[in-house]
Design a protein that fits this description.
This protein is mainly alpha-helical. The chain folds into 2 domains: about 1-45, no CATH class; about 45-103, no CATH class. The chain contains 5 helices and 2 strands. The chain has a two-stranded parallel sheet with strand order 1-2.
Length: about 100
């Protein structure tokens, strides 16, 4: 899929920083933590489409259902933006990419 990030940008949230540091220590990784109010805004803007789609649903029956729905929406968004490349295939339409993931 996307792989392990090299850098993570947060908005100085103590809990996010602590979680990343613990992950680095536990898994012996070297993910760099950057603190920037404005760089993180780019990432948050990318999630607006998902927030707009899930707002009418406000409550899911279970956490599993919410997780599956949001994951599917994020995958479709990544395919649409050209961020998801399927191995071994050069040019595929978004529908072909999605069906190859489901196969």
């Amino acid at each position: 899929m996307q792989g392990l990030p090299e850098k993570i940008t947060t908005d100085k949230s103590g809990s996010n920083t602590a979680a990343i540091r613990r992950y680095n220590k536990t898994h012996r990784t070297a993910i760099v933590i950057r603190h920037s109010k404005y760089l993180n805004n780019i990432v948050e803007q990318d999630h607006r489409a998902g927030k707009r789609s899930t707002h009418p649903m406000l409550s899911f029956e279970s956490f599993w259902a919410a997780c599956c729905t949001i994951t599917g929406m994020e995958v479709m968004h990544a395919i649409r933006k050209g961020q998801l490349m399927t191995p071994g295939h050069s040019r595929q339409t978004p529908a072909e990419q999605f069906s190859s993931l489901a196969a």
